[in-house]
Design goal:
This protein starts with a strand and ends with a strand. The protein has no helices and 11 strands.
Length: 118
C-alpha cells in the first residue's frame, strides 16, 4: 500500500487548511484510513480516522474543528482543518489500516508539515 499526502503548509492561527491522501497498491483489504500527527518533542497522536463504512473517530483536541471524509471509491481521504491553533503545528501522517481478526497492518505515508503561525 502506498500513500501520497498533500496539502500541508503554513497558515495563520484561526485559518483553514485541507489535507488529501491518496492510496494505491494492494488496498482491497484496507478498511480504515486516517490521519495521525506528531509535534516536536511529543508522541504521535490520533487526529481522525474514517472506515470504509463511513464511521469517523476524532482525537479530543480536534473535535469540532477538523472533519475527515473520503471519496466514493474510498481511496482518497481528506482532512478539513478549521480554526487552526498554534498547537496544531505538527507533521501529519496519512494512514491506511487493514484490521483482521488477530491484529492489524497499518501503513504510513511520508508525512506533510502543517505549521500554524500567530
Amino acid at each position: 500500500v502506498q500513500l501520497q499526502a498533500s496539502g500541508g503548509g503554513l497558515v495563520q492561527a484561526g485559518g483553514s487548511l485541507r489535507l488529501s491522501c491518496t492510496s494505491s497498491g494492494s488496498i482491497d483489504s484496507i478498511n480504515e484510513m486516517g490521519w495521525y500527527r506528531q509535534a516536536p518533542g511529543k508522541q504521535r497522536e490520533l487526529v481522525a480516522t474514517i472506515t470504509t463504512g463511513g464511521v469517523t473517530k476524532y482525537g479530543d483536541s480536534v473535535k469540532g474543528r477538523f472533519t475527515i471524509s473520503s471519496d466514493n471509491a474510498k481511496t482518497t481521504v481528506y482532512l478539513r482543518m478549521t480554526s487552526l491553533k498554534l498547537e496544531d503545528t505538527a507533521v501529519y501522517y496519512c494512514t491506511a489500516t487493514d484490521f483482521y481478526p488477530r491484529g492489524m497492518d497499518r501503513f504510513w505515508g511520508q508525512g506533510t508539515q502543517v505549521t500554524v503561525s500567530s
